[in-house]
Amino acid sequence: MSFMGIDIGTTGCKVIAFDDRGDALATAYREYPVLSPNPGWAELDPRVVINHCKDCIAQVAMEVKNSDPVVAIATASQGEAFTVIDRNDKYLCNAMVSSDMRCQKQVQQLTEQLGLDNLYKTTGASPHTMCSLFKLAWLRENYPEILDNASKILCFEDLLGYELTGQTVIDYSMAGRTMLFDVTSKSFCDTILDSVGISKDVLSQPVPSGTVVGKIKPDIGEQLNLSKDVIVVAGGHDQPCGALGAGAVEPGVAIYATGTVECICPAFEKLLLSDTLRKSNLATYHHVVEGLYTTVAFNLTGGNLLRWFRDEFGAEENRQAKDAGKDVYDLLLRQIPSEPTNIFVLPHFTPTGTPHFDTSPTSAILGLDLTTTRGQFIKALLEGITYEMNLNVEILAKAGNEIKELRAVGGGAKSEIWMQLKSDIIGLPIVSLNISEAGCFGAAMLAAAGAGVVSSPKEAAKMWVKPSRTFTPNKKNLDVYSKKYDIYRNLYYAIKPVGSKMAKQTRLIAT
């Protein structure tokens, strides 16, 4: 038998089947485009997303059908994006993803109407354009007929679950990403729903992650090479699912995902609602492991910065990698020196993420001179990203959630050079793991727990997660980086006024 973990991301979906020892048996992946019909808009066509998910499910299910047939499925999903469906199951709009910023006016209006403090104490989140609440408010103002005709409003986790089973169920962690959910009472908040003119009737039933949603519909099962006895289990938001998949299921342990976006997702035992977290835009919501809570610290530029360098300045490495069949990133990272650089990079080439939530920040590269080497420049980009994530680690510690160990996943976790650099700057041990697709892995653990094959998701993590190497701080480098970090932590505030003047001047010239 096998357990299927599905990861529905912003740019693609991945499906992996794992056996009862946690070993991957089959994988499928499909990409889909992010649509931007207007400036600041970012959408997915939910029909394309669901069809690609089904294609991946069918491919993986066929590969394991005769040897290890799938018995249970769970989904890890991006947060916030939702699809509105009418009573005939027609999709009424595209899904606005996290980076869609069209609802800035609604953020201001609803925050004033509902009260910042009340919103935070109810939902555990700080108002931001990424939240489903404000995207719904934008729809209510601009396309009210869509919400008037809504029979169901579903995030991607419960949308796929509905397509597979006919049941509408959402887990607590996904519900917590909408800013419609009361994280204390574990129910959708009537007052907040009233503000956008919708009722609980159109939303899915909130349940703990790992709860059985239902059996797959026989006709769908046949289409997807699945038995009619396959069960669908409530999964969760992709970050805490990834934390489960990395074994970050104890206080003091956090997943560190290094990819297009950098994320740190810790586990803690209490519902932390504090001014420290609120002011730093660190939302508190349910973990996919029962009894635990989490937050997500993130840098939206992340690994995009190294990709930018590769595309703009790495033509020779790209050629060498293609000719030799090597990874272009390995060729780039081999050039970096072992010692810290004297360059500071403020890595805000996109909106910032936490702690600033600045949608129009200013990036900066400081300290270049005629002796700067290519390798030093590459390393400085990685240092800047890591300094920024260290801000978040520091804030979490001040809020009473000290991280003592980081579990590394994602594409960047494959690089020993990159992992050592992170450990040297943050000053914590970083553990690389036996698997990089932690979202699918965590979802599969929830599926196994729902099927009763393991006693709990936490038990699955203990059995299946296998650390491969631990990177510890180099004391000499740590001492240097600690002094440099004292400079970096003030850099955003020093650069922001200059950036604002630059942006204003650019607008004046443009007009």
Overall description:
About 40% of the residues lie in helices and about 20% in strands. With about 500 residues, it is of the alpha+beta class. Strands 3-2-1-5-14-13 form a 6-stranded mixed β-sheet. The chain has a 6-stranded mixed β-sheet with strand order 19-16-15-22-23-24, sandwiched between helices. Strands 4-7 form a two-stranded antiparallel ribbon. It is globular and about 65 Å long. The protein starts with a strand and ends with a helix.
The profile of the biggest β sheet is:
6 strands, mixed
Give the integer mean of the pLDDT values.
94
Give me the CATH architecture of the largest domain, please: 2-Layer Sandwich
The CATH C-level name of the largest domain is Alpha Beta
Low-confidence stretches: none
- Beta content comes to 15-25%
Approximate shape: globular
- Total strand segments: 24
Rg over CA atoms, rounded to whole Å, is 22 Å
Helix content: 40-55%
Query: How many angstroms does the end-to-end distance come to?
Result: 64 Å
Which structural class is indicated by helix and strand composition?
A: alpha+beta
The CATH homologous superfamily of the largest domain is called: ATPase, nucleotide binding domain
